[in-house]
């Protein structure tokens, strides 16, 4: 199926979503949100998809919201930005963070506003050396949405999170890596091959275990240590009943490469 604002393909167990509004730095419109939601739902439900890779076409990953999509003529009522967050951005972040499969993000160029926070919501983030991250909300008197107020303090600490949110500096890919915002920086011409290679490798692994890991880390922010230990027990119990655990043990004993199914 063809799309107007994105490109989407599935190969070798990897679903690749490319934001495709390069002339607008892949900024989001309501129509683009609809297309992204559709393909992420498909990727989540398709058993042949074992990993998801998100990136952008052109010179930037994503500039966040397309302000032209919510422009207001003089005298018209102001847009309800909370409605936009509730209908579009929050569901997108929940799709990424709760997906029972690993989600890799390849950041090419600038990731600003919601674009930065969408990237940071992914499980593994790889950035090209020329990439940058900007919490640009403060320039418009807004707050970091798309999970920014949740992820940033956990990634970089409260002091840096407040600085990023209130000052809006341009954070280089190298600085983002040094601060623990992202996993890895690579040369620009190696970005897609590195990210795709990682996605394909992860797609061959026991991805059901990755889903349990995502669930455990997400819960840890609100749990006490005792509650987290109980969750670890429950998830480990469930993981021990999966096909992939049994296959992994069997392959180890038989001294062969395991064949995982994500089940």
Quick gist of this model?
The protein is α/β, with parallel strands linked by helices and 263 residues long. The protein is built from ten helices and ten strands.
Fold blueprint:
Layout: E1 6-11, E2 14-19, H1 30-45, E3 51-56, E4 60-62, H2 81-98, E5 103-107, E6 110-112, H3 114-120, E7 124-128, E8 132-134, H4 148-156, H5 158-167, E9 170-172, H6 173-178, E10 184-186, H7 191-203, H8 207-220, H9 225-239, H10 243-253
Largest sheet: 6 strands, mixed
Oligomer state of the chains in this structure: single chain
- Please identify the structural class as seen in this structure: alpha/beta
| Widest sheet: strand ordering | 1-2-3-5-7-10
Distance between the termini: 28 Å
- Look at the structure and name the CATH superfamily of the largest domain: 2-enoyl-CoA Hydratase, Chain A, domain 1
